[in-house]
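Table S2 (text version). Query chain:
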Amino acid sequence: MTDDEKQTRQRLTRARPALGACSGVLAGFASLGVAELVSAAVRPQAGPVVAVGGAAIDRTPAAVKDWAIRHFGTNDKLVLQLGILVMLAFFALVLGIVALRFRRSGAAGVLLFGIVGAVSATSRPDSTSLSDALPSVVGAIAGAAVLYVLVGRLARRVPSAESVQGEAEGPPSGAGWDRRGFVIAATAAAAASAGAGVIGRTLNGASGQNAVASRNKVVLPRPASAAAAVPRGAQLRIPGISPFTTPNGDFYRVDTALVVPKVNATTWALRIHGKGVTRPVTLTFDDLLRRELIERDITLTCVSNEVGGPYVGNARWIGVRLGDLLAECGVKPPSKGGTADQLVARSVDGMTIGSPVEDVMDGRDALLALGMNGEPLPFAHGFPVRMVVPGLYGFVSACKWIRDIELTTFDSYDPYWVKRGWARKAPIKTESRIDTPKPFARPKTGMVMVGGVAWAQHRGIDKVEVRVDDGPWQAARLAAEDTRDTWRQWSFPWQATKGGHTLTVRATDRTGQVQTEKRTQTIPDGASGWHSVVVTVD
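Corresponding structure-token output:
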């Protein structure tokens, strides 16, 4: 053997683990690409990353979920999926190295991950068929085959010139691996995987086109009871303050859906049934459009909203009175002898949300909402139909993509969030927020306009006060009130002096309840405490 051949063999020997790791990653890529293609024939939610991600969300402690929302906001789902992909890439890399010595064991490891994905997909609340296991299973088989073939190329010997000359004396001695065969196989696997993934992603996107078309055809009727015009003075002209009406694109979104459901309104239906329902009914989207619609401005708040947090927004909703609909089905609230005290709403993605029947039927504008700010609901906010109940945190009222309403009792059923340590009942707490100046701002000395919003849905805001450092509480100027179900803007002219200062705000609702200073976490029924910002005046 020449020196050049020896050096080549040494380089290949050193490169072999890296090539094995590369084989594992390519096998993982093939699994995901093929799974994406197969999921197009099943449903997007059956893909392994989505299924495993959903299972991870279901099993994540409430405190961890709250931390993720607090730190990543609406990007929490993207971070979760990226984390899953990084973990899969790491394990695929390890399996590729293992397969260099234990070829079948490495391929079996890929199949094992397929089983995990299949179990996750079929155990999801929205799974209705064993076919949900197909994307993970077929993808794993494809990945195992790719790994087996690529590692085989690395193990295959090719004859050297020396072995060819001595061929008559015995079997050829190996000079290296089948580099050409490995490169061809690896390139083909990468190209095929990418192609499968792109086609699958395209088909999955196209599968929602019928839903998009159905939304585009929706023409919201003129409501029988229109919302009053927003009063003049409800929107303060202060730079940095939140707009009174939150645009749809800016409205917060907090849910567990890794893939936003795209529901076809023409095939959608809502079933109302359960305890105390004497006249069960199934309603289509057109049935709801033909009913008497009302339009209302309602502020929604997420229970994951920390003091001063962004998960609160105000919109103009149009929909059907839920209380009237339940009454037509024979439902009575507990105060009038009804046997059901909990309304369990079920989403198309399997989410269950429990609401107090008493609150839904006490005369407040609880809605099955069809529209938001003058247009059909956006998909991310629940198209075709969602619940909106003023005065209750979203996790006990605001079911998106709703498909089923069951009347039951709190004693007999725990919905999704209750099983994870959150409260069964959660009226929204009186809260206020400073929007401007921002934390750590550096305003100039002189007049600085402090402003923000305060909310106490279904009770209304009566007063807002601001304190500078440890000074006395001073009354802020309240903007005009729209309704007691909406937030209210406020402003406070501050004569700022040089140096560091702490600005604090508190609100008082119409019942006379002053916003508490006591700080609590969002779990189990919403955060409380005063919001403060620290600024330095130059």
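Notes on Table S2: The chain is about 35% helix and 20% strand. The longest strand covers residues 499-509.
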